[in-house]
Design brief:
Layout (H helix, E strand, L loop, with lengths): L1 H15 E9 L7 E10 L5 E11 L5 E8 L4 E9 L5 E8 L2 E9 L5 E8 L2 E10 L5 E8 L4 E9 L11 E7 L2
Antiparallel strand pairs: 1-2, 2-3, 3-4, 4-5, 5-6, 6-7, 7-8, 8-9, 9-10, 10-11, 11-12
Length: 179
Protein backbone atom coordinates (compact mmCIF):
# COMPACT_ATOMS: atom_id res chain seq x y z
CA UNK A 1 0.00 0.00 0.00
CA UNK A 2 2.86 2.37 0.86
CA UNK A 3 4.48 1.79 -2.55
CA UNK A 4 1.16 2.55 -4.28
CA UNK A 5 0.96 5.92 -2.44
CA UNK A 6 4.53 6.75 -3.40
CA UNK A 7 3.88 5.86 -7.05
CA UNK A 8 0.69 7.92 -6.97
CA UNK A 9 2.63 10.92 -5.63
CA UNK A 10 5.25 10.52 -8.34
CA UNK A 11 2.51 10.35 -11.00
CA UNK A 12 0.92 13.50 -9.59
CA UNK A 13 4.25 15.31 -9.75
CA UNK A 14 4.79 14.19 -13.34
CA UNK A 15 1.29 15.27 -14.36
CA UNK A 16 1.52 18.60 -12.53
CA UNK A 17 3.52 20.28 -15.28
CA UNK A 18 3.35 19.40 -18.95
CA UNK A 19 5.92 20.99 -21.26
CA UNK A 20 6.06 21.15 -25.01
CA UNK A 21 8.90 22.87 -26.80
CA UNK A 22 9.37 24.19 -30.33
CA UNK A 23 12.59 25.58 -31.76
CA UNK A 24 12.11 28.03 -34.59
CA UNK A 25 14.72 29.64 -36.79
CA UNK A 26 14.40 33.42 -36.95
CA UNK A 27 14.66 35.25 -40.26
CA UNK A 28 17.89 37.07 -41.14
CA UNK A 29 18.70 40.03 -38.92
CA UNK A 30 16.79 38.67 -35.91
CA UNK A 31 17.82 36.57 -32.97
CA UNK A 32 19.56 33.33 -33.86
CA UNK A 33 16.86 31.08 -32.44
CA UNK A 34 13.69 31.13 -30.41
CA UNK A 35 12.25 28.61 -27.95
CA UNK A 36 8.51 28.46 -27.24
CA UNK A 37 7.29 26.65 -24.13
CA UNK A 38 3.61 26.00 -23.54
CA UNK A 39 3.07 25.08 -19.92
CA UNK A 40 -0.05 23.50 -18.48
CA UNK A 41 -0.73 22.68 -14.85
CA UNK A 42 -2.68 19.41 -14.70
CA UNK A 43 -4.36 18.11 -11.56
CA UNK A 44 -4.47 14.45 -10.49
CA UNK A 45 -7.67 13.88 -12.48
CA UNK A 46 -5.99 15.01 -15.68
CA UNK A 47 -7.83 18.34 -15.80
CA UNK A 48 -5.82 21.32 -17.03
CA UNK A 49 -6.04 23.96 -14.32
CA UNK A 50 -3.89 26.73 -15.80
CA UNK A 51 -1.82 27.35 -18.91
CA UNK A 52 0.65 29.96 -20.05
CA UNK A 53 3.50 30.20 -22.52
CA UNK A 54 7.08 31.41 -22.40
CA UNK A 55 9.12 32.42 -25.42
CA UNK A 56 12.91 32.72 -25.21
CA UNK A 57 14.94 34.53 -27.89
CA UNK A 58 18.72 34.40 -28.22
CA UNK A 59 21.18 36.81 -29.82
CA UNK A 60 23.81 35.92 -32.43
CA UNK A 61 26.28 34.99 -29.66
CA UNK A 62 23.81 32.48 -28.20
CA UNK A 63 22.97 34.57 -25.12
CA UNK A 64 19.40 34.94 -23.90
CA UNK A 65 18.13 38.27 -25.23
CA UNK A 66 14.40 38.21 -24.45
CA UNK A 67 11.80 36.29 -22.44
CA UNK A 68 8.08 36.81 -23.06
CA UNK A 69 5.39 35.29 -20.82
CA UNK A 70 1.77 35.10 -22.05
CA UNK A 71 -1.37 33.87 -20.31
CA UNK A 72 -3.72 31.21 -21.68
CA UNK A 73 -5.54 33.80 -23.86
CA UNK A 74 -2.27 34.97 -25.41
CA UNK A 75 -2.09 38.25 -23.48
CA UNK A 76 1.46 39.32 -22.66
CA UNK A 77 2.09 39.19 -18.91
CA UNK A 78 5.75 40.23 -18.89
CA UNK A 79 8.64 40.98 -21.20
CA UNK A 80 12.23 40.73 -20.01
CA UNK A 81 15.20 41.82 -22.11
CA UNK A 82 18.85 41.09 -21.38
CA UNK A 83 21.97 43.07 -22.38
CA UNK A 84 25.58 41.87 -22.26
CA UNK A 85 29.05 43.38 -22.32
CA UNK A 86 31.51 42.59 -25.10
CA UNK A 87 32.97 39.95 -22.73
CA UNK A 88 29.56 38.23 -22.47
CA UNK A 89 28.72 39.42 -18.93
CA UNK A 90 25.08 40.23 -18.16
CA UNK A 91 25.03 44.01 -17.68
CA UNK A 92 21.33 44.86 -17.74
CA UNK A 93 18.00 43.08 -17.24
CA UNK A 94 14.76 44.99 -17.95
CA UNK A 95 11.39 43.48 -16.99
CA UNK A 96 8.07 45.12 -17.87
CA UNK A 97 4.90 43.74 -16.35
CA UNK A 98 1.55 45.40 -15.70
CA UNK A 99 2.81 48.87 -16.56
CA UNK A 100 5.80 48.61 -14.21
CA UNK A 101 9.35 48.47 -15.49
CA UNK A 102 12.09 47.07 -13.27
CA UNK A 103 15.73 47.45 -14.31
CA UNK A 104 18.68 45.63 -12.75
CA UNK A 105 22.18 46.69 -13.83
CA UNK A 106 25.28 44.70 -12.87
CA UNK A 107 28.80 45.99 -12.30
CA UNK A 108 31.72 43.55 -12.29
CA UNK A 109 35.13 43.47 -10.64
CA UNK A 110 38.42 42.78 -12.46
CA UNK A 111 37.84 39.01 -11.95
CA UNK A 112 34.49 39.12 -13.79
CA UNK A 113 32.45 38.63 -10.60
CA UNK A 114 29.31 40.65 -9.90
CA UNK A 115 30.37 43.49 -7.60
CA UNK A 116 27.01 45.22 -7.36
CA UNK A 117 23.52 45.24 -8.82
CA UNK A 118 21.52 48.45 -8.96
CA UNK A 119 17.74 48.11 -9.14
CA UNK A 120 15.27 50.73 -10.24
CA UNK A 121 11.54 50.75 -10.76
CA UNK A 122 10.07 53.13 -13.34
CA UNK A 123 13.38 55.05 -13.41
CA UNK A 124 13.52 55.49 -9.61
CA UNK A 125 16.45 53.76 -7.89
CA UNK A 126 15.04 51.32 -5.33
CA UNK A 127 18.21 49.70 -4.09
CA UNK A 128 21.71 48.36 -4.56
CA UNK A 129 23.00 44.89 -3.77
CA UNK A 130 26.76 44.59 -3.12
CA UNK A 131 28.68 41.32 -3.26
CA UNK A 132 31.96 40.53 -1.47
CA UNK A 133 34.34 37.62 -2.19
CA UNK A 134 37.19 35.79 -0.49
CA UNK A 135 40.63 35.09 -2.05
CA UNK A 136 39.27 31.86 -3.57
CA UNK A 137 36.54 33.76 -5.44
CA UNK A 138 33.69 32.53 -3.24
CA UNK A 139 30.99 34.97 -2.22
CA UNK A 140 31.38 35.89 1.47
CA UNK A 141 28.73 38.58 1.88
CA UNK A 142 25.68 39.96 0.11
CA UNK A 143 24.50 43.34 1.34
CA UNK A 144 21.25 45.04 0.29
CA UNK A 145 20.84 48.80 0.60
CA UNK A 146 17.86 51.01 -0.13
CA UNK A 147 18.03 54.12 -2.33
CA UNK A 148 19.30 56.25 0.58
CA UNK A 149 22.19 53.84 1.23
CA UNK A 150 20.74 52.36 4.43
CA UNK A 151 21.36 48.62 4.80
CA UNK A 152 18.10 46.64 4.63
CA UNK A 153 19.70 43.27 5.18
CA UNK A 154 22.73 41.16 4.51
CA UNK A 155 23.77 37.55 4.22
CA UNK A 156 27.15 36.20 5.31
CA UNK A 157 28.41 33.05 3.60
CA UNK A 158 30.70 30.85 5.66
CA UNK A 159 32.66 27.94 4.14
CA UNK A 160 34.34 24.88 5.55
CA UNK A 161 38.13 25.31 5.20
CA UNK A 162 38.58 22.39 2.81
CA UNK A 163 35.38 22.93 0.80
CA UNK A 164 36.06 23.19 -2.92
CA UNK A 165 35.00 26.38 -4.68
CA UNK A 166 31.31 26.40 -5.61
CA UNK A 167 30.03 23.45 -3.57
CA UNK A 168 26.69 24.74 -2.26
CA UNK A 169 26.26 21.92 0.27
CA UNK A 170 29.31 23.15 2.18
CA UNK A 171 28.00 26.66 2.70
CA UNK A 172 26.54 27.81 5.98
CA UNK A 173 24.37 30.84 5.39
CA UNK A 174 23.45 33.33 8.08
CA UNK A 175 20.89 35.98 7.26
CA UNK A 176 21.08 39.23 9.20
CA UNK A 177 17.99 41.39 8.85
CA UNK A 178 17.66 45.08 9.69
CA UNK A 179 21.19 45.73 10.89
Amino acid sequence: MKIRKILSLILIMVLTVFLSCEIEEEPQGGASEKLDFRIAAVNVNGTVTDTYSETYSYNDRGYLSMRIVKDSEGNTQSITSFEYSSEGLLTKKVTTSGGTTIVAENEYDKNRRVRSTMKDQNEIITGIVNFYYDERGRITKKEEKDASGQINGSADYLYEDEAPKGIAEDITLRILKNL
